[in-house]
Amino acid sequence: MDKNQNLSNPQQGIPPVPPQAMLLREAVMTAYSITGNLSAATALCSSLVDEDLPGEQQASAVLNRLHQIAMKRPKH
Fold first, then answer.
1. How far apart are CA 34 and CA 14, in angstroms?
2. What is the number of domains present in the chain?
């Protein structure tokens, strides 16, 4: 069997990445591009969490706020 076929078959042990995890990764990477520091990026993401929102919407809301911050920053 081809090696690529093993990797693409979900029954072979690699679970699909949930959309929430992809949004969270995107939020952290966006925060990293704003701050230039991974520790500061995670702190920024944490500070933007809105506890009133359902858990499924948290990462999306944080990413939206980060995009707003990025758009207000001066361009290089």
1. 32
2. 1
